[in-house]
Amino acid sequence: AKPDEQGKRRWLRDWSKFISAEPVDEKGNKPGVRLTTSADTSEHALKMLEDYIDFIIVKQNQSLVNELTDQKSLRLDTLTMSLKLTSEDARQALKRDIINTELAVKVAKAAGVTQPLENYNSSERFPINLGTQGLEEKLKLLKIIDLNIYQPKLAELQIQIERLKQVRVEAIRFKPFSYLDAPEVQLSRDKPKRPLIVVLATLLGGMLSASIVLIRRAFISKKQHHDDQ
Questions:
Q1: Residue pLDDT, tens place only, 7-33
Q2: Burial category of 144 from C-beta neighbours within 10 Å (exposed 0-12, middle 13-18, buried 19 and up)
Q3: Is residue 59 classed exposed, middle or buried when 0-12, 13-18 and 19+ CB atoms within 10 A define those classes?
Q4: Pair 44, 52: CB distance under 8 Å
């Protein structure tokens, strides 16, 4: 049967008696933590230490993967919404462009302008500077043009979404520490226990944060680039 919460706490309390951690430099001038494990044999102590290190690596990697998965999901939602809104705006803009061009064709015909005009002020609402021939050709293109061509930002957003979907955050692995001294079986015997000591580089919380920020920036750098433009 699986232990209840009280049983788990009791087990952890008992297990914690066999492992201890202390800074390599008590003054804090040098990084590093010294882990000490104790068991009935040096080999068991070494195995306990290696299992503990593997456990920490798994927990840290899972924490990073979970954080990046959340960031990826949030970024996908943001891009998808941006794509939807940009598509709606583009359809409305294209519709207005078609209506304005149809009206410009009527104005050009009424004015008898068939060929493009030179030095013509095109700031009017329905400019006729292209002439009826140019305006009619423009109207044909507007009625068949692909929305992604009419609004290039749509294609850019779609590319960002597809690239982000291909990012496999679950495959990310990192080592949250480095050894100052590798774990090894202690040759001398201490009484009444046989401790195994290993010195590990300090696991800085900033390492995990920095990793998350770097990969998160990979998600948003493309957006920032376009925003700057």
A1: 767 776 777 777 777 777 777 677 777
A2: exposed
A3: exposed
A4: no
How far apart (Å, rounded) are the C-alpha atoms in residues 199 and 108?
85
| Alpha helices (runs of H) in the chain, residue ranges in sequence order | 5-16, 42-111, 131-144, 147-150, 152-166, 205-228
Q: How far is CA 159 from CA 55, 215, 222, 228, in A?
A: 38, 18, 10, 18
Tokens coding 46:
């070494």
Q: What is the pLDDT of residue 198?
A: 45
What distance in Å separates the CA atoms of residue 113 and residue 107, rounded to the nearest whole number?
9
Residue 28 carries which DSSP code? S
Question: If you count them, how many residues does the chain have?
Answer: 229
Residue 30, sorted as left (phi over 0), alpha (psi -120 to 50) or beta, turns out to be: beta
Q: How far apart are alpha carbons 152 and 149 in whole angstroms?
A: 5
Contact partners, residue 122, CB within 8 Å, separation at least 6: 129
DSSP state of 18: T
Q: Give the closest residue to 113 by CA, choosing from 127, 96, 97.
A: 127
Q: Which CATH class is domain 33-228?
A: alpha beta
What pLDDT is attached to residue 196?
A: 44
**Residue spans per domain, the chain:** 33-228
The answer to whether 40 touches 192, Cβ cutoff 8 Å, is no
